[in-house]
Amino acid sequence: MKVIDKTTDCISSFTGDTSKCIMSNETFNNYIEINNYPNDYEPYKERLDKLKELFNKKFSSEPEIFVRVPGRVNLIGEHVDYCGYSVCPMAIDKDIFIAASKISGNGDFLKVTNEQDQYKDTVIPSHDFSISVDDGWCAYILCGIKGAMNLLGKEQPGRMLMAISGTIPPGSGLSSSSALVCASLLVTTTLNKIKINKYELAEISATCERYIGTEGGGMDQAIAFLATKGCAKHIQFNPIKTVDVKLPEELVFVIAHSLVTKNKAESSEFNTRVIECRLATQILAKQNGLEWKKILKVADLQKALNCSLDQLLDLIINSLHDGYYSKDEICKLLEVSPNELEQISLSPNTRHLTSYLLRPRVTHVVSEAERVNKWLKLTSSNDVCSNELGQLMSQSHESMSRLYEAGHTECDRLVQICLKGPGCLGARITGAGWGGAVVAVTTRKSLDPFLNHVKSNFYENYVGSLDQVLFSSEPQQGAQLFNIK
Asked: Which NCBIfam families does the entry mention (predicted)?
C-alpha cells in the first residue's frame, strides 16, 4: 500500500460560520465537475433513467440536474474526528442520488419524493422551516438546504423539486444520513448558482448536521466530497487536508450489516461520547494550567501540552480516575456552576445527564489516534504487512467495544464470524456504532469463500436482498453532478 503524492493543499479558510465562506486558493480548481448525462454503456445510466422517470411522474416536469454522493466505510480512526484527530475512510459504491430542479412562481418551497415506498412524500410549505428528528429522513435534506440558505444570506433560494434514490442501507453506519445532507447542500448551491469548492462543501455540510443535533467531526462529509476513485483517504481536520492512500492489490474490504440499525440523531449516545471527551479534555487542561474553556478537543490539548500521544495517554491514566464522574464533581473540578457547565461544555441533549465516564473514553480516542498513525506508517512502507493492518482493525474494534462502549452484541458476533472466515486478517465495527456495519479485510483469492462463510453463519435466515447487507467495495469517487440531456 503506497501513499500517492497528491496532497491537496487548496484548503478553505471557512470559519465555521455558514453565513461566510472565504476561499483561500482558487487556483487549484477543486470544484465539482459537471458531467454529461451518461450514455447507455456508462455507469449510473439505468438508475438515472429510473429516477428521471419518477421525477416526471411525480412533478410532471424534467429535472435540471442529478447529484450523486457516495456512502463511506471508515477503515481506521473511529470516533476521533470530532476530537481533532485524523482518519482513513474510503467511499463505497452504495450511494444517494437526487434529481432536482428549481421552479419559479409562488407555491410550496420544497417537494420531495423517494423511490422507496416506505419513505413518504414530503412538502415543505415555506422557507421558514424548522428541523426536527420527527421529520425522519427528510430532516437531513433540510439540514443541507439550511446550510445553503445561510450562504445566500437575505436572498431566498428558489422553490425546488427533488426525487431521491438511495442504495446505502439506512442506519448501517455507512453514512446514509450524511450523504443526504451533502447531496441536498450540493443540489441547493448548484440550483442557486452559489460557486463553492469541495473543501468548503465538506466544511459547511459538517456544520449542517448540527441543525438536527449531531455533534460530528466532519469525516463523513469530507470523504463524501473529496474521495478519489481507487484510493482510501487520509483526512486531517481544522482545516481539512487530504492525501490519497492506495490500498494493496491483494486486499479486499468487505462490509457486512449487523441488521441492527441505529440513528445517531435520535438518541444521545453519540453526543454523550463527544461531551465525555470534551469534559475529560477540559479537566486535564485546567489541571495543567491551561485556558480550559478554549480547549474543546483532545488534539488541541495535546498541542497545547506539546506532548506525544504516549505522554498524553500517561497523563490520562494518572490524572483521571476510573468510573463515573458526577456532574457536581465535574463542576467542582472546573470551578463552575451547573448552569455555567451546561453553557460552556454540554450540548442540549446531554444536559440532562448526571454522570459521565471520562478515562475510558479519552483512552480510546488517544489509542485510536495512535492506530491511525501506525496504519499510515505501514501503508507508506515499501514492505507493507497486511497482517499488521488487519491487527490494527481488530484492536480498534476491541477498543470501541470495551472502552468506548459503542458496540453491540450482534456486531461482536459478526466480527467473530468474520475473523474465522477464509483469509480474514481483521474486522471491526465501523461508523458511529451501537449497531450498523462491520468492515473486514480479506484477500482477493479468499473473497468468494469468505462471503459464503459469512452468509452461512450470519445471514442464514435473512430474507431480504443479500447484496444490500453483505458486499465488497472498491474505493469510489466522491460527489458528482450530472446535467440533464
From this structure: gal_kin (TIGR00131)
Q: What's the predicted TM-score (pTM) here?
A: 0.89
Q: Left if phi > 0, otherwise alpha if psi is -120 to 50, otherwise beta: which for 423?
A: left
Which sign, positive or negative, has the C-alpha torsion 257, 261, 266, 269? negative
Please give the radius of gyration of the chain, using alpha carbons only, rounded to the nearest integer. Answer: 22
Cite the beta strand spans of 220-334 per DSSP E.
Answer: 231-236, 241-246, 251-257, 324-326
Report yes or no: 105 and 394 within 8 Å, Cβ to Cβ. no
**What is the H or E stretch that residue 384 is in?**
none
pLDDT at 14: 32
Separation between Cα atoms, residue 7 and residue 380, nearest integer Å? 14
CA distance 348 to 249: 46
161 contacts: CB under 8 Å, gap ≥ 6: 55, 58, 59, 61, 63, 100, 101, 103, 110, 111, 112
Q: Select from 257, 233, 252 the least CA-distant residue to 425.
A: 252
pLDDT band at 385 (very low <50, low <70, confident <90, very high): confident
Q: Active-site residues: which are they?
A: 220
pLDDT in tens, 414-450: 999 999 999 999 999 998 889 999 999 999 999 999 9
Which of 101, 138, 143, 140 lies closest to 116, judged by CA?
Answer: 138
DSSP state of 170: T
| Per-residue pLDDT, 13 | 29
Contact indicator for 220, 270 with CB cutoff of 8 Å: no
- Taking the C-alpha atoms of residue 200 and residue 91, their distance in angstroms, rounded to an integer, is 19
